[in-house]
Amino acid sequence: MKILITGFEPFGGELVNPSLEAVQRLENYIGGAEIIKRSLPVVFQKSVDTLIGYVKSERPDAVICIGQAGGVSGITVERIAVNLMDASIADNEGCQPEDVPVCADGPNAYFSSLPVKRMVQTIKDNGLPAFLSNSAGTYVCNNTMYGLLHHIEQHYPAMRGGFIHVPYIPEQVLDKPGKASMALGDIVKATRIAISVIASYAE
User: Fold this and answer.
1) Considering only CA atoms, which of 41, 69, 64, 65 is closest in space to residue 131?
2) 151 classed as catalytic
3) pTM for the complete prediction?
4) Mind giving me the DSSP string for 33-98?
5) How far apart are CA 133 and CA 75, in angstroms?
6) Is the pLDDT reported for residue 203 higher than 80?
7) CA torsion angle for 93, 99, 104, 109 (degrees, to 10)?
8) Using one digit for the tens of pLDDT, what is the confidence trace for 41-71?
9) Which of 85, 130, 144, 189 could pair covalently with 97 via S-S, beta carbons 3.0-4.6 A apart?
10) Residue 131, Cβ neighbours under 10 Å: how many?
11) Can you tell me the distance from the alpha carbon of 203 to that of 147, in angstroms, rounded to the nearest whole number?
12) Active site residue 65
């Protein structure tokens, strides 16, 4: 089995992005699956185009995109991506769409094809906070998840795909009173657990 996992570059004035930091620290094989690790730009259309390029070249069995959601208090497994771009801040190339569909001819939403509830429960069973989310937002993360699932629907019906949001790491909240964070090692551990669930789910 081959699993493609992606993290994002820093954005919004941050110097690091815990999603990419965690992805880079994963082993090359987890739960018997080969892990392909890649980075994505925090740019609306470019993130989708880059991801689709990885999918076409690697032909993975499953795709997990990881992104930062500053303010969440645990690993947040996304269930739904909506067909909407509505950015409160500009992306890394200055694009700030408002009330624009991700795909003009696409459905209103896609559901993750990953075993989201099992992923959340298994992470919690291993002593880490995890939650199921019904909104991936309307920024680049949701855009990427929607674009991925739309591409899978059209071209790779046997492929699974979905998205996980992770918290800030402690160094990012030194000047953000009240904002939750999680140690990078715990984010890596939770990501590894999620991958293991997906690998076993496909057996």
Assistant:
1) 69
2) no
3) 0.96
4) EEEEEEEE-S-HHHHHHHHHHHHHHH--SEEEEEEE-TT--SEEEE-EEES-B--SS--TTS----
5) 10
6) no
7) 100
8) 999 999 999 999 999 999 999 999 999 999 8
9) 85
10) 14
11) 26
12) no
Cα 51 to Cα 4, 111, 146, 200: the distances in Å are 10, 18, 11, 24
Residue 148 tokens read as 């991925």
**Is 98 among the residues known to form the active site?**
no
Rounded to whole angstroms, the Cα distance separating 90 from 113 reads 29
Pick the catalytic residue: 21, 78, 150, 151? 78
Catalytic residue among 21, 150, 151, 165: 165
Contact residues for 12 (Cβ-Cβ < 8 A; gap 6+)? 70, 89
Give me the catalytic one of 21, 65, 141, 150.
141
Give the bridge partners for 151, in sequence order: none
Tokens read off for 44:
């609306």
